[in-house]
Design brief:
mainly alpha
């Protein structure tokens, strides 16, 4: 019985905070590594394409960017959702339980969002994301279209890729935190 007496709502909420901050930290590391991996994989495909002069290999870059870009976007959204949950649900509930004012609990979650340069940084990050996951693969698709390797079946594949990239780009813009 003594063990259950030590369990309070505040302790449960703090334990939840610790766990979701760990999840957020892991997702941030994974998301950031996805960007590096995308650039490395794309560079490798481009090097092989140039070396072997097989333009159809360019169509591997959009596949890489679509799959990894979507994974990047999903992780980025979950990272933001965790922050919103802490700000809007967890922090206010702990503030209420402790009798402190709103914003006093987990103040960093609110404070860092008030940085004067945050909007500029977010816009630059969205630009980097779009360059990596949209402009780079679209350049490869266009280069493929301009090559002699543009056979009908591969042309259809490249058009589907271009449409998928447009959807991915739209999703990046849609989920960009303002």
């Amino acid at each position: 019985m003594a063990a259950t007496e030590d369990i309070t709502e505040s302790r449960l909420l703090l334990a939840e905070y610790d766990r979701i901050k760990e999840e957020q930290k892991a997702r941030i590391g994974f998301r950031d590594n996805l960007l590096y991996f995308t650039l490395a994989a794309s560079t490798a495909v481009l090097a092989i394409t140039v070396q072997n002069r097989h333009a159809q290999l360019l169509l591997a870059v959009p596949v890489i960017c679509i799959v990894l870009g979507w994974t990047y976007l999903v992780n980025d959204e979950k990272i933001s959702a965790i922050g919103r949950y802490i700000r809007d649900q967890l922090g206010p509930r702990l503030a209420e339980l402790s009798g402190t004012r709103r914003g006093a609990v987990f103040g960093w979650e609110i404070y860092h969002r008030g940085d004067a340069n945050r909007t500029t940084r977010k816009r630059l990050q969205t630009t980097i994301d779009l360059l990596t996951y949209l402009a780079l693969p679209m350049t490869c698709v266009i280069a493929f279209w301009c090559s002699r390797a543009a056979h009908p079946l591969l042309l259809i594949v490249s058009i589907v890729q271009a449409l998928a990239l447009a959807v991915l780009g739209w999703q990046f813009l849609r989920y960009a935190e303002r």
